[in-house]
Amino acid sequence: MRRVEFFDTTLRDGEQQPGLNLNREEKLKIAKQLDRLGVDIIEAGFPASNDADFTSVQQIARAVQNSTVTGLSRLVKSDIDTTWEALKESRNPRIHLFIATSDVHIKHKLNMTQEQVIEESVEAVRYAKERFSVVQWSAEDACRTDWGFLTKIMTEVIKAGVDVINLPDTVGYTSPSEIKAMFQFLKENVEGAENITLSSHCHDDLGMAVANSLAAVEGGADQVECTINGIGERAGNASLEEIAVALHIREDYYQVKQNLHLPEIKRTSSLVSKLTGNVVPGNKAIVGSNAFAHESGIHQDGVLKESTTYEIITPELVGVETNKLVLGKLSGKHAFRNKVLELGFDPPDEELKRVFKAFKQLANKKKDISDDDIFALLAADKVEA
Ligand code: KIV
Ligand code: ZN
């Protein structure tokens, strides 16, 4: 089975989320936790963009034990030199070069020709290759780029010695079947593509970043770029935890392995949420507070009989202690009895029926039923512990 590498860009693309600002200590804490989680590559920042990023990338490169650390860079030599200064002491110096390749970007943003984009890319890859062990080059806005041009430019950067080519869906525009076809096409038609790593990098503007990343893997991507909790520009990036757990739970389907230590997922998500102030929605897959909570009577009854009836992921797999049976107006007697037992009571059936009725009346008026509420109901019925 081939292995997919996780490239985490929480500290670079993730930090581009409007209003988000992490200081050096916070970035270092996150990087150390990403290392514990087992991500293959940490993109720690954009060293040439400002002094704080330079220092932070340098510090992370020195501190991290297992992950490879990389930094983003434009194609200009001064950026590449600065990135080298920041990363030269790391175990496996790696640079991430990027330039846009779509017509709309080349014309309106870069004001260049396609030939100039190829020329500058080739020159930058050659220059970076003289210094770094691993050179990654990204075709920004690849998913809105003509496949013929992508084929041409990729062939040239491969000849120049690139190790990894990343094909971002910069504006979250593509669809799963389209991105899968794109990866398949480029893998088959670009000369030398079989000797390099192909990477995906999806944004969530249409809510498909994770689905698109998984489809890219199906199409042949060996690296996925993502962020913790899906933070990032606009609607954010593909979330690491969702891709990782999907690949794990559906290993039978995707047929790929990964190096992540999944029980570190919840802790990593909570740390990023706390340090960024970015609240994780309750219904967020994998890490939301409701991801392992059941409220309806039918579901609670099913889970109590056999958890796999309504849970495809065990909470422990991602570092969550246990699932939750939330008591509310839809809860059934089975879950209610469970809670009563958990609180140290074991009333006979008749008493339990009465208290359950009182509980239902209360749940119709009150949204959150606490343990204290249940205690009060038991006490009102004079149930003895
Ligand atoms: O979304 C994007 O295209 C990027 C590149 C710089 C890789 O973040
Ligand atoms: Zn991006």
Automatic annotation (TrEMBL):
Superkingdom of origin organism: Bacteria
Catalytic activity annotation: 3-methyl-2-oxobutanoate + acetyl-CoA + H2O = (2S)-2-isopropylmalate + CoA + H(+)
Pathway noted in the entry: Amino-acid biosynthesis; L-leucine biosynthesis; L-leucine from 3-methyl-2-oxobutanoate: step 1/4
Required cofactor names: Mn(2+)
Record-listed E.C. numbers: 2.3.3.13
Protein's GO biological process: L-leucine biosynthetic process
GO terms for cellular component: cytoplasm
Residues covered by the Pyruvate carboxyltransferase domain: 4-266
GO molecular function, one term: manganese ion binding
Function summary: Catalyzes the condensation of the acetyl group of acetyl-CoA with 3-methyl-2-oxobutanoate (2-ketoisovalerate) to form 3-carboxy-3-hydroxy-4-methylpentanoate (2-isopropylmalate).
Name of the protein in its database record: 2-isopropylmalate synthase
